[in-house]
Amino acid sequence: FNFGGFGLTANPAVNFNIGNFGVSTTSTPPFNFGNSLASAGAFGGFGTTTTTAAPAFSFSAPTNTGTGGLFGATQNKGFGFGTSFGTGTGTGLGSGLGTGLGFGGFGTQQQQTTLGSGLFSQPAQTPAQSNQLINTASALSAPTLLGDERDAILAKWNQLQAFWGTGKGYFNNNIAPVEFTQENPFCRFKAVGYSLMPNNKDEDGLVVLVFNRKEADIRSQQQQLVESLHKILGGNQTLTVNVEGVKTMPDDQTEVIIYVVERSPNGTSRRVPATTLYAHFEQANIKSSLQQLGVSLSMARTELSPAQVKQLLQNPPAGVDPIIWEQAKVDNPDPDKLIPVPMVGFKELLRRLKVQDQMTKQHQTRLDIISEDISELQKNQTTTMAKIAQYKRKLMALSHRTLQVLIKQEIQRKSGYAIQADEEQLRVQLDTIQCELNAPTQFKGRLNELMSQIRMQNHFGAVRAEERYYIDADLLREIKQHLKQQQEGLSHLISIIKDDLEDIKLIEHGLNESIPIRGGVFS
């Protein structure tokens, strides 16, 4: 069975045809997309997000109308990590850890959560889940719907649907069919990638809000956004909302990172912890107000504790083979910074590809900016070097002028005085140097000789304008070899032409002799 480039091996005993796809199934190794590496600024969920679009966008003060908000309500479920590499989130990583922390503006306290429940624990198996597992096993191995050999074919069809992760598995007339989703453990379209763990402290107070709007719209109405968030926080004058950064995301979404500063009456200020701010945003009425602003996802950007990372790595996500999970941990290129995350289905793979393309574009944009800065710096360096050379020449000219002024001033100052001993000694030294320079075998004679040679070379160069070329010995040898091969080729061609001419003469001679013979026969 082939879809795109991904294949499932087929059993030749039973074959189905769906459209143009020949389908037959046997048990095959788990499907793998390969390990993909992606960098994300934060952690989100791996559940499914459902969003209803709305016709307008505004950052005005929200009103509680009971609707899903300006851009619809968001339903989040699933594995529970991050905004950049998950389409939904359960509770926000670290959003309820520790004891209750309150701050003045909100008047609420954070609920206490332990590592034994929620995100980092395996849920207890309920009777409904046990029945679901039994029904799935019956649909895949021993359906009793028809009571004959067709049940075996139905079992293989159910296996194919389970491998694909879609459809319904009928196995009994009295029991509802099993709904196959991509989260089922038999789905083959699963892989494990890696996401970057955040390194922000809880004290930094960073909370991520994902808006269903483009970056340009968010930036143009950033002040209105800040005012609307301040109203959602109760309009307390001791609280200030600040925007840390705005980043474009795929599907015309924008990630806005905010933090809130609380000022006390004594003049000190501090950032509200990220988990506390996130817990406030997760309240039902506050969450509804954020949805009216177009927020589809919110989470605290905090780093994972070593205990949380250990607990997460020890328990494979639902539907992921423990062997694949262990291999993903072994293949982790940087265990200190990256953490394995599951990818289920083509939609998740496409979403990660879009995120990777988005990050590549951002990196390319940054590289272009750096390249422009380097070009500008090179231009400035060239201009600066030219100015330095100009200033050096100017300094030399000013030094000479200054020296001339000093000489004239010294001459006027010493005018009328007898030559002193030190001046006489200096004059003797200057005369000695002058004599050495003027000596025929010394510097002046050599300079005159060099000048004569230069004049003679210029004269001969003007008389003989022709230029002389020299060819390297190796290059000359290669040229000779090439010409020799050309000569051999021409000789071979001439010999072929001579042979062809002889053959033509022989043919003509044979034709001439056959003509009289034919004339005698017909006469």
From TrEMBL:
Location(s), subcellular: Nucleus membrane; Nucleus, Nuclear pore complex
Keywords in alphabetical order: Glycoprotein, Membrane, mRNA transport, Nuclear pore complex, Nucleus, Protein transport, Repeat, Translocation, Transport
Protein name: 54 kDa nucleoporin
Assigned protein family: Belongs to the NUP54 family.
Gene: Nup54
Species classification: Eukaryota, Metazoa, Chordata, Craniata, Vertebrata
Keyword Cell membrane: no
Gene Ontology molecular functions: structural constituent of nuclear pore
Residue ranges constituting the Nucleoporin Nup54 alpha-helical domain according to the UniProt record: 316-454
Primary subcellular site in the record, as a coarse category: nucleus
One Pfam family per UniProt: Nup54_C
GO cellular component: nuclear membrane; nuclear pore central transport channel
The keyword Repeat belongs to this UniProt entry's keyword annotation: yes
One BP annotation, GO: mRNA transport
Domain Nup54 C-terminal interacting: 469-507
UniProt-listed InterPro entries: Nup54/Nup57/Nup44, Nup54_alpha-helical_dom, Nup54_C
Domain of life: Eukaryota
UniProt function note: Component of the nuclear pore complex, a complex required for the trafficking across the nuclear membrane.
Quaternary structure and interacting proteins, as annotated: Component of the p62 complex, a complex composed of NUP62, NUP54, and the isoform p58 and isoform p45 of NUP58. Interacts with NUTF2.
Topological relation to the membrane, as annotated: Peripheral membrane protein
